[in-house]
Amino acid sequence: MNRFVAAERALRTAAPHELLDAVRAVLIEQYGAENVELYLADYGVSVLQPVSVLPHTLEPLPVHNSPAGRAFGSQRPYREEVRDGRARLHLPVSVRGDRLGVLSVTLPGSDAARRWETELAEIADVLGHEVVVAERDTDLYLQARRKDRLTLAAEMQWQMLPGRSCSRPEYELGAQLEPAYAIFGDNFDWSATADRLTLYVTNGMGEGIEASLLTNLAVNALRNARRAGISIADQAALADQAVYAHYQGRCYLSVLMFDFDLTTGRASVVDAGSPQLLRLRDGTLERLSFEAQLPLGMFEETDYVAQDFHVEPGDRLVFVSDGVHAVASPKGEAYGDAALARAIHSTRLLPAAEVPRAILRELTGHRGKAVPDDDALVVCLDWHGRPPRP
């Protein structure tokens, strides 16, 4: 049995909470590894949290200014020379573009690191898939991701999210929420088939548990309607009825909904009291507006109408909630269009998965304090278009 097959089999047969033990044992036996550690990105994507021992005894690693963080940010293996001629490979652990963390493997020397780099990167990829599956049966990896305690509202919101990033040949998506450990109302959701991408960006009203419950109801109503195979306008109408039936207009939720055709780039859009959308095309940034319709749940039996929209290869779409564009500085100055435009232009060379976090860092500087008073949501969509068939 070759080395890679042995590692893959060990991971696929390991108990959910023993994935790291399994991969560590096989890498030591088959590749001569001297040390193996798994780090997962925390909810704020500021540090890489060690999984090895719970409660944690290893120090978390910064996403910025660390060799492991370099592998995480670039999504490429990074080789670090350590003492006594040893080499440490930092390997991204990702699933279809969703960045989970880094597997760090210490090997006897640089020659071994170069020889096994590609194969070990593939094992890190298998490990990522197994971690996602294992999270159905163990809290180990979800616990490891948190450097602080989540509020109950934040726990509910993170459990609803599809991931923080994903990629396909036609597009790349990245998203981030703040305050990561105390969010309550803002949310995003996406789902793709062979030919379509559906994207929701929501901005819920209220605070704490009540805001989270409202968003939970609305997002699951949208998912239920989407999975029934109905149009995006009817999805909005059914979710509107579900929210109104429960709250009778006391609470409602803003949402911007897209249904993209991956072949043509044409989309149907429902703007129900939406977050803002900005498009970067050929270096020019433009704020896009659609016909405004009522938020979900404001009135009984609201009818929604889908509008047409089109993206072209090379377009970058950036969605922001009011916790971004309306946030005030210590002097009371709103962040506004100009500052947001500068932040989007300054991140134009970053991949979509990195853009939301970079914009939110800029926002923190404007706000003047680390913890915002309102949820802040940024979603970035890079549209590549469907590659021609061979």
From TrEMBL:
The keyword Hydrolase applies. Residues 170-383 form the PPM-type phosphatase domain. The lineage of its organism: Bacteria, Bacillati, Actinomycetota, Actinomycetes, Kitasatosporales. SUPFAM superfamilies: GAF domain-like, PP2C-like. InterPro entries: Bact_Sigma-Reg, PPM-type-like_dom_sf, PPM-type_phosphatase-like_dom. It comes from Streptomyces mexicanus. This is Serine/threonine-protein phosphatase. It comes from the Bacteria. One of its GO terms (molecular function) is phosphatase activity. Pfam families: SpoIIE. Keywords: Hydrolase.
